[in-house]
Every structure is written in C-alpha cells, then in structure tokens.
Amino acid sequence: MSLLLKYISHFKIKDLGCENQVTLNRERHEVMTRQAPLMYAAFIINMIALLYPHWDNVPHILSLLIPGIFVTVFIHHGFMEYNNIKRHKSDEQIAQKLYSSMWESSAFAIALLVWSYLLFSYEIPMLQIQIMIFLYMTLTVFAFFLMYVLPTVVLVSVIILVPSTIYLVMTGDVVFSALSLNTMFIALTVIFLLFNQYEILTNLINQKLKLTRQKQSLVEQATKLEIMNDQNLQLANIDTLTALPNRRSFFAQLEQLTSKNTGRPTQKLVVGLMDLDGFKRINDVFGHPAGDALLVKTSQRLQDILGTDINISRLGGDEFGIIITNSCQIDDIQNIGQSICDAMRQVFHLKEGSVQIAATIGFVEYPQMAPTSQLLFERADYALCYSKQHSKGQAVIFSTEHETIIRNISNIEHQLRETDLEQELSIVFQPIIDVQTNKTSGFEALARWENPTLGQVSPDVFIGAAEQMGIIGKLTIILLRKALKAASQWPDDLYMSFNLSIYDLSSPQTVLGLISIVEKSDFPSHRIVFEITETAVMNDFKQANEALNLLKLQGAQIALDDFGTGYSSLSYVQRMPLDRLKIDRSFITDIASDKHTRNIVQTIIDLCNNLNLDCIIEGVEEPEQLSILKQMGCRYVQGYYFSKPLHHEDALKFLGPKQNINNKSAAAK
C-alpha cells in the first residue's frame, strides 16, 4: 500500500518540480492516449460477446440499458482520446489527467462489478461462467493497455479482484472458488510483471534524462580542457567510495575557515573526528566488500543525522571528519555527538548479513582550545584516542583537563628520551599462588619507573607513552634483563611471568633481542612465561603468532592475559601456542554476588581443563572470592589477598624457608 501511495503521489501537480517526474508523466499520458481507443473497442466487443447468447434470459435493463450506457461512455472516451493524440497539453494538465484517470477508472470498475453481480445473481450457469471470463478478460485488457499507468491498474485490480474473489468463494461452489483463487494468483503475477515493466520504463527515462543532461553539460562547457579540469578537481576532493569530501577537502576547508580569522578570531567552529569501533572485525569476518558497503551506509547515516549544514568528510579507512560552524549546533555539540554514537549502534543491514558496530568521537572547539587548523586536528585526534581508552563508543570534547594530560605526557616523553632508563626502571614481583598446595608457583614481573623530576610514574602512563614514541622495545629489553637477573636467585620450582607489548610482538628486532637475553641469562627458559593480551594478538595475528612460536622454540611458555575482555575467539586460542590463560580481574570483583559472572568464570576454567591449559585468576582480594574459586576447581590465583607487588628482597622473604603461606597474615596483603 505504501508503494501504491508513493506512485499515486507522483501524479499530483505539486510534484512537477522534478524533471524526472514530469518526463515520466508525459510518457504515461502518451501511452494512455495512444492505446485508450483500442482498449475501449476491446471492452465493447467483450461486453457484446457476454450478452449476445443470453439476450432474452435477463431483464432488458441489464442486457440493453446498462450495456448501452457503458458502450456510449466507451465510444465517447475513445473519440476524446483519439482526438487528444496530437494535441499538446501542459505538464499541469497531464498530471491532472493522470490523477483523475484513477478515480474515473475506479468508478467504472465499481459500476462494471455491480452490473456483473446483478447478472450473476440469475444463476444461469453458462452466464455465470461468461461473467467471470468477462471480468477477468476485461481486467487483463485494461492492465496491459495501461501497463505504464500503474496506479490506475492496481486500483482497478483491487476493486474487481478482491470483492469478486470473496463473493465466489462464499458461494461454496468448488469450481467457482478454484477459478477465482487461480485468477487471483494469475492477476497478482501479472501485476508483479507490470511493476517490473514500470521500473524498466522509469529507469529508461531516468537514463535518457541523465544522458541528455550530460550532453547539455558538455555543450555548455567552453572547452574540453575546462571539463577535464573540473572533473579532476572534483576527483581530487571527493572520496570515490562514499561520495563525501575526502581528507584533502577536509583540511582545505579547515584551513580556509581558520585563515579567515587570523589575528583575533571571531567565528567559532568545532572539529570532530569519528572512528568506527569493530570495523576491522567486519572486514576480517565478511571481507573487504562488506567493509566498503558498511562505510557507504555509515556515510549515509551520518548525512541523515547531521543534515546539510554540517560538513562531513571521509579522512581514510573508517575515520570521518566533521566541521560545525553553526553557533546553535556548536552550543549543542554534546547532544550531537551522543546522537551520532546512538545512531551508529543501530544495526546495519548488509548483503552479507546484519552487523552492529559503534563509533567513538573526539571534538575540539576553535579558537578556545586550538588556534590553528593543525592543532585543531591534533587535539580532536587526542580527544578521540582518549575516548577510545576511557569511554569507548562515546563522544569526548577536548578540555583543559586533556590539555594538562598532553602537557604531562609531553614531559614524560621528554624524560623517556633524556633520562637514564637503565638506572631508573625497576621490577616488582606479585606472587602467583597454588591454592591446592598453599605454595607460591611463580611471580609476575611488573614494571616501575621512578624519575627524579616526575617522581613515581604509573606503568600504564609511561608504557603507553613509550609505545607511542616507538621505544617500548628498549624498555622491554631493560626490564626483562633486570627481571631475569632477580629471578635467578629464586628456588628452582618457581617460574617468572613477563608481559609483552603489542609493539614487542610486531618488531622482529625486539623479539630477537628477547631471545638473546633469555639465552644469556642464568634463569632457565622453561621457567619463563611471556604474557600477551588478546588485543595485542588481534592487531596482527600472523606476525604475533610467528613471534610467539619463536619464543616457544626457546623453551618459554606463553600465557594469554586478560582473557574474556577482548575478542575471546576460540579459533585463535586453538591456533596460538598457549600454555595458560589468565582470567581478568574484572570477572572477580562481583563473583560473590553475581551468578552470571560465576558461570562465566566456571566456563573458562572448564575450557582450560579441556584444552590442558593452566588457568590463573587475577585480582583476588577477599576471602569469599578465594573460597568460591576453590569450589570451582581453580588452582592458581594472584591478587592483593596474598600480596601486593613486592621488591626483589621482599619477594624472597615472602617465600620463606618452606614456601608455606598458611601463616601469611593480613600484613602480607
């Protein structure tokens, strides 16, 4: 019905502003005018064929008077349409004629249907059969003669088919019922074919208009060189996949807007960077064509949300740029960002299947938080990265707090470049306990940095900064060397667990350096466990897996850290050279009160048992948590319940002469 209303609305005069619609209406009118006389002639012949054998069997009002009125109307309309073939009509007149033809045809169909039912009521078998044939043949003739005036055909078909089918089925006659239902099916098939023909006509007209406009455009151009220059300029500034402005266009507009406000800027604007969360997974699972289709749909959804007042550009990959200059929209930037994030969470329907992603956005305001185009982009990018780390799937507006963080990070980066890392970096060790034997099985080595200028710097901060600077490999080498030196003084039954960065696995030089340190160390390689996170592996699975296999060949063991918080793909777990899984502390926090959390932890423990992998639980801080984990069959545990991270000397004291932790009091926590 909605499709029908769509076609009906095209006949209204108010729609004549569309060139395609005007041309389509004219083509419909030409077809209707040219074929109408022949159609009316077919109606008359069909009616005579119906009445002639039964002339005296029904009242003359039904066999002569009413048919005579029909024939008179047919002849009159036939001559009118014939005379209109060569007459020129305005677009408004054509639209009005098409629109009124629907209701005239509907009135004719109703009258014809009532007359046929009156004849049918006389229960003359042959007449009844002829009436059915008459109705369906009339409808067929009408449909094929006016196949391009589709709304009229559909209306008349509904008026004739629906009541007649219901009436014939209710008679209880099997023959009539079967014939009516069969006719209904055939009629629907014919209408479906007519819809296809209608679309073909529409496409041909659109193509014709497109070619005409292209021809006119070529004629209007002064020279062929100017045309090529215009096209090249467009290609240089438009993203070919999404048809949005590209990266070059984005920066050109940004530079233009900020350069107009040199000196004391008066115009405010907001720059936003949006990145899709989960896009790589779509590419990996469904392939790059699906990823391209997702980008196209994303751009369309963005345009629907933001409208034409806001500039949207595709900067590359799954990153989009936004420039907002309207003051009202700038004041409402938080709500705009939230509406974008909410819309991006809605399901996308692709040819390959339905997918769901999210979006993270970073905004920055000009000139308050950034006075130049370059700084605008950098700070919007920082807001985006900050949101990905702290509030993924949300919009973050760059603020003075972020400026302070950047300044601090800059200081940290400066110190990392200039300081003596060999002297300032250190290692602490957190024990991993075997709760079945109540003994320490090993220690996890954790990095610490104390700088004379900055003081104690959080590991997350300085490791993240080192990764961004590309020097994390240097830190890893120093830390591993120190960790192995300390671990060489441990009892022979203890192992050491050491964390590797995503960038360590991506660098063949760093991996070879790690192998060299292990070979030169007094600590046996089979007692070393290298921990990696799911995110690190997923960044480049092939490279990461090759690096892990090299470490495995040296005799080291491999642990997958923070299991359950990343991709958690069992296929990847199966393909990696793993010896143990570590369940993230986020699952332990509510394990005493949350049944679902307990079920998840139990499932991972069972998985490890089935795959012959050791399972280590992180973040145990309460006796109740430990009791539940023991009941689940968990064996290896670490957390503040047993001990905080310890310096080397304290770690040796923690072990004690017999490695018995039964006498460890709360002071050891």
What does this structure look like?
This protein is an alpha/beta fold. It folds into three domains: 2-215, no CATH class; 244-398, Reverse transcriptase/Diguanylate cyclase domain (Alpha-Beta Plaits, 2-Layer Sandwich); 423-668, EAL domain (TIM Barrel, Alpha-Beta Barrel), CATH 3.20.20.450. The strands form three sheets. It has an eight-stranded mixed barrel with strand order 8-9-11-12-13-14-15-16, surrounded by four helices. A hairpin with a 2-residue loop joins strand 4 (348-350) and strand 5 (353-355). Helix 2 packs antiparallel against helix 5. The longest helix has 47 residues, at 174-220. The protein is elongated. The protein starts with a helix and ends in a 14-residue tail after the last helix.
Shape type: elongated
Based on secondary structure, the structural category is: alpha/beta
The tally of strands reads 16
Distance between the first and last residues' Cα = 71 Å
Report the major sheet.
Answer: 8 strands, mixed, barrel
* Percent of residues in helices: 55-70%
The value of Rg in angstroms is 39 Å
Count of alpha/pi helices? 26
- Which stretches are low in confidence, meaning pLDDT under 50 for 5 or more residues running? 1-17, 660-669
Gross CATH architecture of the largest domain: Alpha-Beta Barrel
Strands side by side in the biggest sheet: 8-9-11-12-13-14-15-16
Number of domains: 3
User: What is the fold-level CATH name, i.e. the topology of the largest domain?
Assistant: TIM Barrel
Give the DSSP E fraction (strand runs of 2 or more residues): 5-15%
| CATH superfamily caption of the largest domain | EAL domain
CATH class of the largest domain: Alpha Beta
Overall pLDDT, averaged?
82
Query: What is the assembly state of the chains in this entry?
Result: single chain
